Amino acid sequence: MLYFIAEWMEFEGVFNLVRYQTARAGATLLTALIIGLFIGPRFISMLRIRQGKGQPIREDGPQTHLSKRGTPTMGGLMILVSLVLGLLIWMDLRNPFVWACLAVTVGFGIIGFLDDYDKVSKNSHKGVSGRTRLLLEFIVAGVAAFIVVGQINTYLYVPFVSDQAIPLGPFYYVFAAVVIVGAGNAVNLTDGLDGLAIMPVIIASGTFAIIAYLVGRVDYSEYLGIPHVPGAGELAIFCAAIMGAGLAFLWFNAPPAAVFMGDTGSLALGGALGAIAVASHHEVVLAIVGGLFVFEALSVIIQVFWFKRTGKRIFRMAPIHHHFEQLGWSESTVVVRFWIVSIVLALIGLSTLKLR
Fold first, then answer.
1. Is 20 within 8 Å of 234 (Cβ atoms)?
2. What is its EC number (predicted)?
């Protein structure tokens, strides 16, 4: 909105700052952060009143989690409101990449909301069936992939290798949808401890803000030997909105959490990261930067597969963060150490921009 106003004013005076994506990214982060901090207490009070018992806690989960009964969920709504408002104020509304990523974020948020609502209303941890949820996710991801692929080529670029890409052709649409859905569910599986998922999401968003800005610049992308995607620089503003909204949520989600983001937030944020990775042509780098999410998802897949084959468990409990809790790590220890892992993985992901 402000970009159009600044453009109408021909970027004169103070409006000249709006011309620059870096300035708008910083402004978006602050806007989303302020909105989130302002509406947070009201959202939490509303959720507490409407939900009563809060998010159902699994009886077969870690016993230390039983003390969290009564904590409201669906805090992802707070994230979505502050994120969307921050974006609409500062983004270039003509950019198709931002609209595609926003469609995934809101669409996955709605799917997560339906799942959370089903859990809370029935006081059960089951929620919407897995098949129904996946079908809806692939529909949303498919639409976003169609929009994004209309703006980019269908090559898969390999990190650490310059000028090498794998032509996927029409299969790229399927690949893009899988990346988006996979990222959404990986973050969803990670969201099991206070502050565990949101900080790695913020770290990954900050990393992709840098990546998106660089691939959107023809001079930087040519110098670094990375694919140039015209218009992708606007995604740095999207990433900044995630960071601002995420930091505001972390203020209330820090241990002991006053609210959980629920599937409403985790699916939306994970899907957003997947869509940003596809739009910036750094899908493989997402697996590095978001390696923690990948590890969490793999721990569940491995646990289920091995248990069905042998009747035995590899991990004491899955996802993997519960395994470390069962080993005697305190919740805060698991969370902070996983944050450190996320920072290291983000640095490795950024190194792929130069090591080619």
1. no
2. 2.7.8.13
Cα–Cα dist 196/161, whole Å: 33
Distances (CA, A) of 2 to 36, 90, 210, 267: 20, 6, 23, 29
Closest CA to 216 of 226, 229, 206, 203: 229
Contacts of 182 (CB under 8 A, 6+ apart): 274, 297
* Tokens found for residue 182: 């996979």
Residues making up the annotated binding site for Mg(2+) are 188, 263
Rounded CA gap, 329 and 260, in Å? Answer: 21
**Which tops the pLDDT comparison, 196 or 2?**
196
* The residue count for the chain: 356
179, 305 contact by CB (below 8 A): no
Residues 6 or more apart whose Cβ sits within 8 Å of residue 14: none
Distance (Å, whole) CA 353 – CA 214: 9
63: Cα separation from own chain's centroid:
28
Is residue 263 within 8 A of residue 188, CB to CB? The reply is yes
**Which residues pair with residue 259 across a beta bridge?**
none
pLDDT score of 118 more than 90:
no
Whole-number average pLDDT of the chain: 90
Q: With a cut of 90, say whether residue 54 has pLDDT above it.
A: no
pLDDT surpasses 60 at 61: no
Whole-angstrom Cα distance, residue 270 to residue 42? 25
pTM for the model: 0.94
Tokens of 159: 């990190």
